[in-house]
Amino acid sequence: MTYPTLPTLAWDGAVYHNPLMNTDEALLPTGGYPTAHAPAMLELPNGDLLCCWFAGTYEGSADIHIVCSRLPKGALAWEAPVEVSGDPARSEQNPSLFFGPDGAVWCMYTAQLDRQAGKDNMQFTSQIRCQKSTDGGRTWSAYETVFPREGSFCRQPIQVLHNGRWIFANWLCTDSAEGLSGDPTVFQISDDQGKTWRQVEMPQSRGRVHANVVELDNGHLAAFMRSREADFIYRSESFDWGDSWSAPTATPIPNNNSSISALRLNSGRIAIACNPTCTPDPVPGKAAWPGLRCPVSVALSEDGGKTFPLIRWMERGEGFMGEENRTNNQQYEYPYLMQSTDGALHLAYAAHTRKGIKYMRFTEADVMGAKRERVGLYNPTAAQSR
Length: 386
Fold this sequence. Notes:
Elements: E1 16-18, E2 23-27, E3 35-43, E4 49-56, E5 65-71, E6 82-83, E7 90-99, E8 105-113, E9 127-133, E10 144-147, E11 152-154, E12 159-160, E13 166-172, E14 185-190, E15 198-201, E16 208-217, E17 220-227, E18 232-238, E19 249-254, E20 261-264, E21 270-274, E22 296-301, E23 310-315, E24 333-339, E25 345-351, E26 356-362, H1 364-368, H2 380-384
Antiparallel strand pairs: 1-2, 2-26, 3-4, 4-5, 5-6, 7-8, 8-9, 9-10, 11-13, 12-13, 13-14, 14-15, 16-17, 17-18, 18-19, 20-21, 21-22, 22-23, 24-25, 25-26
């Protein structure tokens, strides 16, 4: 007996439903760039979705720059990406999106100098810049350098707390023999909507980076971090709106020294998207790169991110198992997770070893394994007529 097969996703942005996973999925148009990495998303007030990432030949090269794609509300496909940045002397990386009080979309990103002889990693030269769009991500302004201190790096977006305070997680890269293993986490805090900023450092946070800030209650914050030691995701707390932080401690979720994404859902649960793998022999204070960046999972916590009893593999990749097969799996990494106003969860990550960006839409119930009726973007009749 021959069974029908699912349509193979192509790099054309078309959104299809995957009945095995109960997800809506798409491979975003690559724009012709050979690599894509570090996506971020934003829902606009009109319901359109934006996804931005950095694209070019290779991370750290001067031709790496930020691009942005749009999924109009109700559309069946993501649009081709438009260019956001383009400094010919710097590698522009790690974008995040924020809808500002001025009605513009703010794209914050890092900009480091191109490689130099004998120095492959130039993150210690990075500054943090901002470009804005007032037309829903179609065109972008010239850049402004917001944080000029060299070595400033970012990944997660500006968060607005219930008291109106803005908090923007960063980490500081240095030019040292230990490379990236000693980077500390800092927070840029503004009480005047970004007009002025002051810096707060997280104690004992060297090697704990990519902090995701989640507000658990008024003034009570939790930050979840990538570990350079490739052991676990780490967690720190603040009880004073981010003015001070506890030393990070390990959560039960493994981390492979790759980026994570955390947020508080409408239900009150904490959700974290990550690659739940780690190195078998972590060395304190030493950066490790286990290599395996698959699967992409979403984990749920009901106690503020201390335990995660619910976890689901959303991206299974090629599915090869065991040490001998790790090179047969491609890389699916740097997930970004967001929840839209209708309650749906949206996940984007670099796919097929950075060939492009994959997008998924699902619900909290899908992560928990609850049965539900599908309500998705995919319209079979319209898709057949395309």
